[in-house]
Amino acid sequence: MKIDAIVASGKIDAVATPAFSETEVVWIDVESPAPVSVPELLSIRDMAEKFEVTPRALRFYESKGLLSPTRDRGTRVYGATDQTHLALILKGQKLGFTLAEISQMIDARSGRASRQALRLTRQKCVDQIAMFEQRINDALEAVAELRRIHTSLCCQ
């Protein structure tokens, strides 16, 4: 995908020209740590600390079927798959995807759904780009307003 962005007068103008068709599947890749000989098993507390989320968030994702920790004497144990899934959940949310869309990504990645089951279309990507550009523009306008207020306070 090619994106040309020009910052002028505190605004961002971008032209997005995706290089894929509307029917193609778009995957969000998460960075995987180097493979280790023994998979790291985490308690709910350790998982929450590692990914900077709350234990409540982990239980919520589990209730939605996005995570499926095993149990050891009633304690949740998160393995490599759950860690990969949580990384995908957090990245997907950061990019503005819904939990339903993220669930489809996890299912497709895990082989529980066909590629056709997950269609993140070109329009969805363009919509997300536009939403983030609007947020950037709003933030730039707020900074400009704060600078005007600061200048007026300093010069009185």
What does this structure look like?
The chain is of the alpha+beta class and 156 residues long. It has 2 domains: 56 residues; 97 residues, Multidrug-efflux Transporter Regulator, Chain: A, Domain 2. It contains 5 helices and 5 strands; from the N terminus they run βββααββααα. Strands 3-5-4 form a 3-stranded antiparallel beta sheet. A hairpin with a 2-residue loop joins strand 1 and strand 2. The longest helix has 33 residues. The radius of gyration is 21 Å and the shape is elongated. The N terminus is likely disordered.
What's the gist of this structure?
By secondary structure, the protein is of the alpha+beta class. The protein has helices at residues 44-51, 55-63, 80-94, 99-109, 122-154; strands spanning 2-8, 11-17, 42-43, 70-72, 75-78.
Overall morphology: elongated
Strand content: 5-15%
Residue-averaged pLDDT? 78
Structural class: alpha+beta
Number of helices: 5
Report strand order across the widest sheet.
Answer: 3-5-4
Topology pattern, helix = H, strand = E: EEEHHEEHHH
Alpha-carbon Rg, integer? 21 Å
What assembly state would you assign to the polypeptide chains in this entry?
single chain
Distance between the termini: 49 Å
Largest sheet: 3 strands, antiparallel
Helix content: 40-55%
Total of domains: 2
Counting DSSP E segments of at least 2 residues, the number of strands comes to 5
CATH topology of the largest domain: Multidrug-efflux Transporter Regulator, Chain: A, Domain 2
**What is the CATH C-level name of the largest domain?**
Mainly Alpha
